[in-house]
Recover the amino acids of this structure.
């Protein structure tokens, strides 16, 4: 019975570690997505401003 409890505790610990790692990775990918969208928007604004200045 004790070995069964030990195996169950190890499996629960492993599963919780995997879920925490998944959550951290998912959160960081969301941060990187927000960053890439802001960089893309800034690049588009800079391109538009350069085009306007070139026309003047």
């Amino acid at each position: 019975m004790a070995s069964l409890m030990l195996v169950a505790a190890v499996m629960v610990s492993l599963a919780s570690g995997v879920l925490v790692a998944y959550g951290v990775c998912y959160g960081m990918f969301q941060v990187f997505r927000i960053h890439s969208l802001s960089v893309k928007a800034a690049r588009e604004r800079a391109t538009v401003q350069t085009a306007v200045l070139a026309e003047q």
